[in-house]
Amino acid sequence: MPPVSNAREELARHKQANVMLARVAGSLYWMSRYLERAENQARLIDVNLQLLLDFGHVTDEQLKAHWLPIVRSSGDEALFNELYDTADSESVTEFMTFRTENPNSLVSCISNARENARQVRDQISSEMWEVLNDAYHFILGADAKTVWHEGASAFYDQIKRFSHLFQGITVSTFSRNEGFEFIQFGKYLERADQITRLLDIKYHILLPSASDVGGAVDTAQWHAVLRSASALEAYRRYYVADVFYKKVVEFLIFDDSFPRSLKFCCQEMDHFIELITESSAEAGDRTAIERFRAFLERLNELSVEDIFSQGLHEFLDEAQVEVGSIGGQLYSTYMYFPPVDLQAEIRFHQQQEQQQQQQ
Questions:
Q1: The model's pTM
Q2: Residue 261 falls inside a structural domain
Q3: Would you state the pLDDT for residue 358?
Q4: Are residues 250 and 126 in the same domain?
Q5: According to the model, what pLDDT value does residue 340 have?
Q6: How far is the C-alpha of 33 from the C-alpha of 110, rounded, in Å?
Q7: What Cα–Cα distance (Å) separates residue 168 from each residue in 124, 173, 223, 225, 229?
Q8: Cβ neighbours for 140, distance < 8 A, ≥ 6 positions apart
Q9: Cβ neighbours of residue 107 closer than 8 Å, sequence gap 6 or more
Q10: Contact 304, 249 (CB under 8 A)
């Protein structure tokens, strides 16, 4: 039997190593998710601003109907109503871009991505850190009035470029180890969640009347959905015909070659789940993993007609639950460790050793 002092040291080293690995994995995961969320928010705001220009003059009620669903999709409607009297272009873009009270604003997402990166600076490349740091100072150096005056589209384009640059540098400079797996898993989870929210905004919220289906406003909105996912050109190459709502839904859910479709993202998530679980000593509860794989298998078997028969909103809700469930399971298993009271652990093991010696 090893000396008690050595056992204590080994226990402390084991606990500290597990906590450190979990913290690194968690920071990389959230760094990736927050930056991906910022990019999605930027493209959504920008496309909606462009859509209003296409419509021309709109009433206050139309403005509210246009912007409020965007706020609602992020779950921040109650907070928005506390801060603003009405939902219009200026109030919503300020809320979703610069308000630090909003946990999903661009400034919050980029700040959180940078903070998570700062905690693991020794694990990421200097180029990755520089991009996040530049993005952070870029958004802190702007305000709503400046953005409106100098051009909102250029501002949001720059946010997207920071994200694209970061992803390219990550692929080029980050070793293919467990950290890379958590970065990629977080990115694709966030994309999968965002694409379901984007489709739900359009189909469930923005189309109040069945008589509007196929009309000019409906078609313009579906164009906006594709542009929000940077999918319009890819859609045009796949479907030569005009934009049609069922084809848009089919493309954004089922296309297994477009990197922002739900199916593509879920397949990539499954790939990195396998790598994470294989390389970790933690077994964890595989219930959520098996459930997610059952959902992916069903996704492979479904058609767009099946989804509309079930109800698109209902299907998107189900997809959000499944994506969120597997994300929560992997986080709790591999990325979260509760605070460890090493002294209590040592006392417990000392008591066990004393009982064994007395027997």
A1: 0.86
A2: yes
A3: 63
A4: no
A5: 47
A6: 10
A7: 13, 9, 27, 25, 18
A8: 107
A9: 97, 98, 99, 100, 139, 140
A10: yes
